[in-house]
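Q: Protein A?
A:
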Amino acid sequence: MESADASLASQISALTSSLNEAKNTLQSAVDQVAADLVAAKAELQAAIDANEKDIEEKLAALDEAYKAADALLVSDIAGLEGNVGELNEADEALKAAIDALDEAYKAADEAILEAVEELRAENAAQDAELERQDAELERQSAELERQDAELNTLSVVLYISLAVAVVALGVGTAGLVFGLKAKKKD
């Protein structure tokens, strides 16, 4: 798109330069014709004053100067009209390029808005999943705390049972030792 814009800008610049050059050339030609007409008029006036024989020659020269000026003006105006036509075509192409660029920007904006909405929906779904997982972790944490409490209770019961077993073993061993000693004495 930028290369098309640059190309159009280059063409417009070239046409503008050509138009300005044609205007300058036309102005020079008009100035020269005007100077020639003034000179021819002065010569004609001098001829009228001096002699009538040169009047016809001077009128013919004046007529040629007018015809040359007219031909120059007609050709330069036709060239300027051609340049104006080219400028109008370039302007239309530039307008079409701007319209296409505007459409592309609108399409890009719509695509961005759609992508943002999709991201929002995905974010909401992920938030819901995270909340569900958080609730599950809290439930598992509560279950672990309950199991830890049961384990502590079982550990206490086990230690008490072990202590009772050690005491019972000690009492049983002592009873056995005393029983054996008593048998031995008998």
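Q: Protein B?
A:
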Amino acid sequence: MLVSDGLAWAAVAVATVAILHALIRHPRQYAWQAGLWGLSSILLLAALLSGGPRWQLVPLGLAALFCLTVAIVRWVRASKGKLQPRAGRFNARALLTGLIALPFIAVTGLALYLFPLFEMPRPSGRYPVGYTEFHWTDANRPELHTVSPIDKRALTVEVFYPADPGNREGKLRPVMLEGGAVGASLLNNLPGTRFFLSHLAGIPSNSRIGAKLASDHQSFPVVIFSHGLGVHPDLHLSLVEELASRGFVVFSVNHTYGSAANRFPDGELKLVEVQAYQGGEPPPNAQVTAEAERILASNDPAVIAEGMQRLMNARPLDRAIERFGLDIWEGDQRFVLDQLGQLQAGILPSQFKDRLDLDHTAVTGMSFGGIAAVATCGVDSRCKAVADLDGFFVDLLDRPAPQQPMLVLNGADNNMGLALFDRPGGWHYWMKVKDTRHADFSDIGLFSRLWRMKGSGGSIDAAHIRKIVNSSVSSFLEASLLSGKSDWKPPEHWNDVVFQSRGPAAASEAPASTTEKDAG
């Protein structure tokens, strides 16, 4: 909990005490009321000064202003003998004022609980983290999300990199600048939801804008990361900062019109085009849904692959839409790979000239971004390792399997990643994390408790799943890109992780080794 949140909770507590105090008759009742509401107001002001303005504190601010004003007026009148507490067991006037304020206090308490200020997890690596961003346009690809025939595909790419130790230049970038648009997207753009995550702009990350690239190595390995559909790259901030602190230069792609929000230098904010990615067919009926759940619960990769292909072949429009989006995102990742060569050669001016180790490049992502990473690495030899965080499309089974080392992370509610893990290729690894759901593979559990309450997250602790994901992906990339180590295993023993590995042979020839990690 940040200091600002502690002060805000203290203000809520004092305001609650002020209401309860009205139940106790006292000769100096109005003076006490003025003092308590004054203290609550001071704590609230301190919270605003330390953490910046945020919507969660508005209801309490209105209640404190009202109650403090009323209490001061009554105190002054009582001191002049013009007002005396009425007879009875409690001060009815003070209690009535408090009851008017009570709903406002309750709203602030609920908002602080659901949308807290928090401190981003500290990266474990030896480097501080620097940050910059690029806005690139692919002149060779039209923008298929718009109706204009002259629009070209434009992307924002956030870059996190190892910075010189001791370098304190540049301010810390916020956790998320476009929290308003992202919050609305995550809540299906319901009216009044644009402000729910706007407070994230006031929370500092661990990344310093414009910091100098570390000078202790000539070049650093590279990771491309892609977010999930309809969300935002900053929902994976803890992972990319962890990778950067361990010596990777991470290019986190904002897939325009596939992300919740992408703001360009001219100020234009481009939001997700939901209709471009939604199936045009009716939702599956209960029988089909039950059949899909049965298939995905299987431990047999062949059953999963055959069953899901059969179900999706009966929904040709859905498959076509999947293919449409996947082709665009794969093209985005391969375009970024092209741009890395331009940065390395100095054709695109930056501090990364001659500093990128492009022979050691991984492509990674979560959900739709992880699906695209698997597709890209199946056809592009510039990719040397791939990590997919809980992403699966049937269409991937019709595309070339990655021959590079591949890590697939899977949520607890299905085994769909086994269908990717089992395909012939290089060293493949599959991890299933118990008590998780899809959203747990992002940082959303740090941002708000609401998503777990609405069923988007599992029962796993938010900090624990962050450690599992961040340390596993980092360790896998270090082993695959830097040490050339085969037969990788997760870096720690967790009792809520099921792990399988398969060597570089055809699926039918190489039996997988299965381990349920024990607590260590």
